[in-house]
From TrEMBL:
PANTHER family: MARR-FAMILY TRANSCRIPTIONAL REGULATOR, TRANSCRIPTIONAL REGULATOR, MARR FAMILY
Matches recorded under InterPro entries: HTH_MarR-typ, MarR/SlyA-like, Tscrpt_reg_MarR-type_CS, WH-like_DNA-bd_sf, WH_DNA-bd_sf
SUPFAM superfamilies: Winged helix' DNA-binding domain (SSF46785)
Keywords associated with the record: DNA-binding, Transcription, Transcription regulation
Organism: Lentzea flava
Name recorded for this polypeptide: HTH marR-type domain-containing protein
Length: 139
């Protein structure tokens, strides 16, 4: 199996489990919406920035933001640096989902560590962080 699949399969499982926990806690959103939501900067992001970060078209990003706004997870506010532009910001409702996702992430990491061992888990984290140095354009 190639390295891409070896990286993707555990990630897909992790993402599905986190989304299931978030949804079970009453935060109804899709994976596509969550992926976009994760990319919003702390002070807010312009739609074009979100589209680029999520690697989707501006139209797709706009559609997802519309859905997130209707659900109460984001709001659009004027950009203080450009009166014509708007920023997408997360709301308190979205922030309330973070501890749910974080708790599920901790459960998954603990499960993985029990399965592969503490040393290997540390090595995996170290190797992935090192790869991030050359693969993450937003680092």
């Amino acid at each position: 199996m190639n390295i891409g699949l070896l990286l993707y399969i555990p990630y897909r499982d992790l993402e599905n489990r986190i989304m299931a926990a978030v949804t079970a806690a009453g935060f109804d959103m899709t994976i596509a919406q969550a992926r976009l939501l994760q990319r919003i900067n702390p002070g807010g992001s312009r739609l074009t920035e979100l589209a680029e970060a999520a690697q989707v078209t501006k139209q797709t990003a706009g559609f997802l933001v519309d859905q997130l706004e209707k659900a109460g997870f984001v709001q659009r506010v004027p950009d203080p640096t450009d009166g014509r532009a708007r920023l997408v910001q997360v709301t308190d409702k979205a922030r309330e989902a973070v501890p749910v996702a974080d708790a599920e992430m901790a459960r998954i990491e603990a499960e993985w560590e029990r399965h592969i061992g503490k040393r290997r888990m540390a090595q995996l984290r170290d190797a992935l962080e090192k790869l991030g140095e050359i693969t993450d354009p937003y680092r």
